[in-house]
Amino acid sequence: MKPCVRTRGSAMPYVLGGMLLATLTATLAWSRAWGLHSRAQFQADAWQTQLLAESALACALDEMSQQGTARKDTLRSTFADTTSSTCGFEDFPRAHLEWEPASGDMLWDLQGTGTWTRHPSPLVRHLRARYSAAYDPDIFSPALSLWAACPVEALPLAMIRGKVRLPLSGTTSPGIEAQKSGSILSFVPSQAVADTQVWKARRTQAFRSDEAMMGAIRWTSGSTLPKARETAITLGSLSLEGPWSGASWTPEENRTVYVEGPIEIRGKVVLRGWKLIATGKIDIGENAILKDAFLNSPVGVRISGKAHVQGQILAGDRMELAEQASLDAPSVLVVTGGGEHLRGGILTLTETARANGYLVAIGDSASVHLDEQTRLVGVVVSTGELDNQGRIDGVAVATRLSCTQAGASCGSSGRFDRTALPVDFAFPFGLDNQKGVRLISWELLP
Q1: Which pLDDT band holds residue 89 (cuts at 50, 70, 90)?
Q2: Full DSSP string of 124-191
Q3: Residue 318 region, left (φ>0) first, then alpha (ψ -120 to 50), else beta?
Q4: Smallest Cα–Cα separation from 292: which of 276, 315, 316, 268?
Q5: Pairing state between β 391-401 and 123-135
Q6: Phi-psi label, residue 88: left if phi above 0, alpha if psi -120 to 50, beta otherwise
Q7: Alpha-carbon dihedral of residues 224, 75, 124, 270, nearest 10 degrees?
Q8: pLDDT greater than 70 at residue 161
Q9: What pLDDT score was predicted for residue 353?
Q10: Is the pLDDT of residue 202 over 60?
Q11: Short-list 291, 272, 329, 294, CA closest to 195
């Protein structure tokens, strides 16, 4: 019997090739599955991190609500792996959240950070949110609200679109209502005057620091700013100068500068989140842009040129918006008086200036004046006199209107239009009859 003889090549290479192909297929399938798993895991971790940042904002809001508008001196609040707070965690060390206190009391600009520990590096998300107060709509329903007796016939009713409230008793005319309970001080943010004293104490403390600079300081686009986020300048001044053409200078955000003297800002410069506290005048002009700013000066603040400012302003003697300058929404501006004008602050809009915000002048002799070509969108409050030659789209509240002569029509040629107040207008905290908190805007930071 003949032995079996193979006449074809060995099958081993085919077996090995099949095994290799199966291995490659399995490897590719595993790699794809692991890639999808890694991507899904990353997305889940990123979502968890953002939820932590949102929780940080909720905790910050809860903290602010519990303490009212009282300002804390702590720079940061942090809770991680603790049960000492309702915002804490128990046996969950991978999650960490923190928040920074509001940059102002009249509007709350809060920033929350969430951190999720993972390999090879933690995920971090930053959220910034802005909150305003909510009030009974009836409080701000009139176009004009006066708190001193004024003859109805002296009012410029033809220039008023909306209701008028006066301190009347008995029968009222169509479109005229009697004032309800309360006083004009109900329209003044309660924390404004207290904040003035708080910032005065803070700048005094800052000037005593061993790190304080001295003399006239000039920062430009070519300057190296101090590493510290908080800077004090004693016995001097600060000048911030951007270029006059080309791209704007945008220095680092969220700095605090105390100056024992004046501050001047000129040129194409963009400042975001800066707090500028000065003993002298703050003068902002040309093409300067300030966003989320906090300004405080017992002397006063002037915004002119084509400058744009948005934020919170506490001025002493005087606040002036001039030329083509603009105060952008959401903003709160309070002129408290003091210094030369002990009995009231002076607020003026001249030339073609624009303002969009909640503006207040405090004091028995407080004065608010709008030139003919100016426009204010929002709410203006004067515990003294209001002289509107321009246009107020929103609500005007004053003790009395300016009258050029006895028996003349008060309010002159200015217009009042309640229907033009934006539905999403941001009202400040610290007024009477607050009904809650409103979220104005939020953003995910890089």
Answers
A1: low
A2: EEEEEEEEEEEE-GGGG--SEEE-S---GGGS-GGGEES-EEES--S---TTEEE--SS-GGGGS-TH
A3: beta
A4: 276
A5: unpaired
A6: beta
A7: -40
A8: yes
A9: 97
A10: yes
A11: 294
- CA atoms of 204 and 222, how far apart (whole Å): 30
| Contact criterion met (CB below 8 Å) for 105 and 71 | yes
**Which residue, chain included where needed, has tokens 């899904």?**
40
- Residue 248: CB partners within 8 Å, gap ≥ 6? 242, 268, 269, 270, 287, 289
Query: Residue 246 — left, alpha, or beta (φ > 0 → left; ψ -120 to 50 → alpha)?
Result: left
Per-residue pLDDT at 350: 96
Strands (DSSP E) found in 221-299: 230-241, 256-259, 263-266, 270-272, 275-278, 282-284, 289-297
Question: What sign has the CA pseudo-torsion 78, 84, 87, 88?
Answer: positive
- Hey, what are 266's tokens? 């000129």
Residues 101-131 have pLDDT tens digits of 666 678 888 888 888 776 677 888 888 888 8
* Residue that the structure tokens 């309970």 belong to: 181
Q: Which strand ranges, in their side-by-side order, compose the sheet holding 123-135?
A: 77-79, 95-100, 108-116, 123-135, 434-445
Q: What's the token pair of residue 84?
A: 């000492």
- Backbone phi, then psi, for 358, in 5-degree steps? -105, 110
Report the percentage of the chain scoring pLDDT > 90: 42
Contact 387, 359 (CB under 8 A): no
Length of the chain: 446
Q: Where are the alpha helices (DSSP H) in 319-391?
A: none
Q: What is the structure's pLDDT at 103?
A: 64
Q: What is the mean pLDDT of residues 9-21?
A: 64
How far, in Å, CA of 52 to CA of 174, rounded?
54
3-state helix, strand, coil in the chain (%, to 5): 20, 40, 40
Task: Encode 362-385: b = buried (16+ Cβ within 10 Å), e = exposed.
Answer: bbeebbbbbbeebbbbbbbbbbbb
Pair of tokens at residue 399? 């003790």
Average pLDDT, rounded, for the chain? 82
Helix (H) or strand (E) holding 192: helix 191-207
